[in-house]
Design goal:
Layout lengths: L1 H21 L6 H6 L7 H12 L2 H15 L4 H30 L4 H9 L2 H34 L3 H47 L8 H6 L12 H14 L5 H8 L4 H28 L14 H9 L5 H36 L5 H25 L5 H28 L5 H27 L5 H9 L2 H21 L6 H9 L8
Length: 507
């Protein structure tokens, strides 16, 4: 145990060193948010994307719960994340996003909407939506990590959450996106080493109960279970976690700051390989719990932590804990930066004080990073009794709502010139309404229409993966339909977004 604690302390000190090293690289808004004019190379961007993608929610929440539920079939989620959520996402969006945001001079997703569609209102509404719905995602990461440390190290959850928040806030406050990317690169290497060691230990566990026929049976899920179970639920999880990142502000932000064509080509390969390794191992580990006799009576929420206690030898537990800690900190820093930027740039400088200096805006953005971290950790502490299912569904609601609002306006907006302002409004507003409506419809349908509002709400949130997928599909459909039946965008806006040349354009 002492050796494990030493590893954790060394990791914390390395993050402090990153904060000190990068503090001189974040003097302006552009430096703080986009790592300067040159941007980042493909390796750093790829690791930043991957470590933002996979957090403690994936390892503790999704892998633990759905690995137990679906067996080895849950591995298809990780494969989908690598192919759809990483490889295809990079090929479709990276170059287009980089070029268009450079032409428009957009630093955030709300600012992109404002300039792409010529609507100040879209900027304000999308900024508010992003800030609100990234909070539950951030809180779910804190809850997932605290559950690990409570079970494995007997450290109170609130202590873990406060320490994690302080460490994340430190290097983010001083170094901004560059500090976040440097730490992501370090954390990505830690994650690669950690998952390899973890899977070796699991597969060599003395009491693992391999049954070839059982293994074959768990690669696929039957279609039973109706709308809420079986193959439908698995497909919904694959689609939500794979397509959701196409329209999340914290992952799209990585494309804004990538350096050039060579960096994008590197990023495609590196990020896909990283996602395939991490995603496969995470869900494969959760599925292996099915073959551990010691875990037969363990609740889903404790599966991964208990596996660590059982199968990881003394001295390596700290390494695995740092693996999950790394995944969480990178996600939290990206989410905090995305949320702080939409308030500082889009609301404060964009609406409240349009004459605010670059220096003042940067100071406010730093402060807002701390505020967002504080809000998230307070909510997480207040809800520290959530089980892992609730943590996973908090993430599902966050991803599903944000991707449902922005899938059409953003993804189609960088591809198709015909997308209109009215279509963007229709997607955002109707997706919010649809999300709330589906939560209650599914909740009442599961429990009977005479159940209480609270029961319906809690049960409906449990269907968040399916709700998110429906809303993403709805966003694309309504964006296309409304665009075809409304006035074409102004030629000046289309020229600015799609056709204007700029120095350093990626061909």
């Amino acid at each position: 145990m002492a050796f494990d604690i030493i590893i954790l302390i060394l990791y914390a000190l390395s993050m402090v060193a990153v904060a000190i090293y990068t503090k001189s690289r974040s003097g302006s808004v552009n430096d703080f948010l986009l790592a300067g004019k040159k941007g980042l190379n493909g390796w750093m961007t790829a690791f930043s994307y991957g470590t933002t993608y996979f957090s403690a929610v994936i390892f503790i929440g999704y892998a633990g719960q759905f690995g137990r539920s679906f067996g080895l079939a849950s591995v298809w989620i990780g494969i989908g994340n690598a192919i759809i959520g990483t490889l295809i996402a990079w090929l479709v969006l990276a170059k287009r996003t980089k070029n268009m945001t450079q032409r428009l001079g957009a630093k955030t997703m709300p600012e992109f909407f404002e300039k792409r569609y010529g609507s100040n209102g879209l900027k304000v509404v999308s900024a508010i939506v992003i800030f609100i719905f990234l909070i539950p995602y951030s809180a779910s990461v804190y809850n997932g990590l605290s559950s690990l440390f409570e079970i494995v190290f007997n450290i109170p959850g609130w202590v873990v959450m406060v320490a994690l928040a302080a460490l994340t806030a430190l290097y983010l406050f001083f170094g901004g996106y560059f500090a976040s990317s440097v730490s992501d690169f370090i954390q990505g290497i830690v994650m690669i080493i950690g998952v390899i060691l973890m899977i070796i230990c699991y597969l060599n566990h003395d009491n693992i109960n391999w049954d070839i026929s059982e293994i074959a049976d768990t690669w696929f899920v039957s279609s039973g279970g109706g709308l809420y179970g079986g193959a439908v639920s698995l497909i919904a999880l694959i689609l939500l976690t794979s397509f959701g990142v196409w329209a999340l502000p914290q992952t799209i932000h990585k494309y804004y700051a990538i350096r050039d064509k060579k960096a994008i080509q590197q990023g495609v390969v590196v990020s896909t390989a990283f996602a395939l390794l991490i995603g496969f191992v995470a869900y494969f580990s959760g599925a292996l719990s099915y073959f551990f006799p010691e875990l037969s009576s363990v609740p889903d929420g404790a599966v991964i932590p208990e596996m660590l206690k059982i199968a990881i030898p003394v001295g390596l537990t700290g390494v695995i804990a740092v693996l999950i800690l790394s995944a969480s900190m990178s996600t939290l820093s990206s989410v905090s930066l995305a949320s702080a930027s939409v308030i500082a740039i889009d609301l404060y400088k964009g609406e409240i004080n349009k004459k605010a200096s670059d220096k003042k805006t940067t100071i406010i953005m730093r402060a807002l990073c701390l505020v967002f971290v504080a809000i998230s950790v307070i909510i997480a502490i207040l809800n520290n009794k959530f089980n892992i299912a609730a943590i996973a569904y908090l993430m599902g609601i966050s991803w599903g709502t944000l991707a449902g609002c922005f899938m059409g306006p953003y993804v189609l907006g960088v591809i198709w010139k015909r997308v209109t302002k009215s279509a963007a409004w229709a997607s955002i507003i109707s997706s919010l309404v649809l999300t709330v409506a589906l939560i209650f419809i599914f909740g009442y349908d599961k429990n009977g229409w005479d159940c209480t509002l609270g029961v319906a709400l809690k049960s409906g949130v449990g269907s968040s993966p399916l709700i998110g997928v429906i809303c993403m599909a709805f966003s694309v459909i309504i964006t296309v339909v409304v665009s075809l039946f409304t006035k074409k965008p102004d030629d000046a806006i289309i020229h600015e977004a799609f056709e204007k040349s700029y120095e350093g354009e990626i061909k």
